Amino acid sequence: MQSVFxxxxxxxxxxxxxxxxxxxPSWLQGTLLRNGPGLFSVGDSEYNHWFDxxxxxxxxxxxxxxxxxxxxxxxxxxxxxxxxxNRIVVSEFGTMIYPDPCKxxxxxxFTHLSNIIPDFTxxxxxxxxxxxxxxxxxxxxxYINQIDPATLETMGRVNYRNHIALNLATAxxxxxxxxxxxxxxxxxxxxxxxxxxxxxxxxHSAGKDGRKTALRNVEQLCSVPFRSSLYPSYFHSFGMxxxxxxxxEQPFKLDILKLGTAYFRxxxxxxxxxxxxxxxxxxxxxxxxxxxxxxxxxxxDALVVFHHINAYEEDGHLVFDMICYRDxxxxxxxxxxxxxxxxxxxxxxxxxxxxxxxxxxFVLPLNVNKDSPKGFNLVTLTDTTATxxxxxxxxIYCQPDVLxxxxxxxxxxxxxxxxxxRYFYGSRVEMNPQPCKLAKVDVVTRKHCEWRQEAxxxxxxxxxxxxxxVEEDDGVILSSVISPDPNVSPFLLVLDARTFTEIARASIxxxxxxxxxxxxxxxxx
Length: 525
Prior knowledge:
- By secondary structure, this protein is mainly beta.
- It has one domain.
- The strands form nine sheets. Strands 2, 33, 34, 35, 36 and 37 form a six-stranded antiparallel sheet that branches. A six-stranded mixed sheet has the order 17-18-21-22-27-26, with no helix packed on it. The protein has a five-stranded antiparallel sheet with strand order 1-7-6-3-38, with no helix packed on it.
- The two termini are 45 Å apart.
């Protein structure tokens, strides 16, 4: 069976009713929003990389045991320019589009070089972010596009730079109980040394013109200088505890000069990212209240991380779990040419080339002082084998505990975000030609359970808690599932999170495309 991932998706702009089998809990009321690449060619031109596809927004709305589905392409400036030209005219991560040779390519290239970060695309295809009461399609650029979660209409583009000095920002923020959103970005241009910036967006408040927009009141919490001005770390997410922000400065680096001269070199932006296997990984711990970083230098071996799972504090330690790779080969796996062949054959052929994901736990001792013993493990927690050894130079060398191997797109019961937790969920990834699966991992027993169906590809699992739930896994798991088998309709899967068994599915009488990330928006009470 050929992969369904790289085929063009289509819109379902008006809601269609799904056929529900099983029983959807009556308390499950709201909308699951999902985002991901859905259009991989325009006219006769094609994208090179899966992460380049034009954003397709999906919604699954739950009401009184019924499900409706709709989808729309994000009406970004990039989408409009491409469709108007009937070809790809805007560059993306893995697809560089060169200017019309009749125009002055050198003038344009020097303009981009002076700005360092080219201002090409607003194709927000990765996630959905909530700022205040507004929802935005997002990716790792300076633009976000506001969407109406009910109709999926694109309501307008917002430039982070109009509110805070950033060139890039993540699509994986954190939220607290007061309605604040915490996020992180990169400031490459401007006065002073280039830096990573952590910022907070409070809930809505009215501006002078009466308009309510949370981003008007964005606050910079702190900044962390680059280790190397020309080679900042790539980051896709970060960790947060009750009192701290955890930023992993990894040796997966962006070459700023190469990025600024991409036109001259004939390379795409993806080729400006390089992994330095001989470097170290730094763990920055920043106080959320004061904005000051701990002076202790925590570091570990070279690794690549995209997704954090959770982080919390316990008995003077900071514990954080994340999905790690030995190198950056994951990005190479998603070039479209790799999807043109039978997916199982591709994985089997390349299983020794592409690094598998490993869920790892790092533990950092917070109360290090001049009397702490050197050369000894300072981790005193009894439920982990992670170590942190104080070196002679005052640095603390950290080695992780392996929680689980072969899982990505992790999710938790978000009520336990920043707190000690027991369960996480994800897409089971195995470097062999097996169908994709969903998994629930118990970090206490280190056991897991799975859901699978032949020839099916489930999306990132999303946990929704039962009303008044006390137990961490009291709720449901939602995942949209597609299949290359024409006899299997796409469906929205509902699992009992405690038993990890299917309690319902909603078959969609329309085209559904594989997505990346999203969130559940509860119905108003």
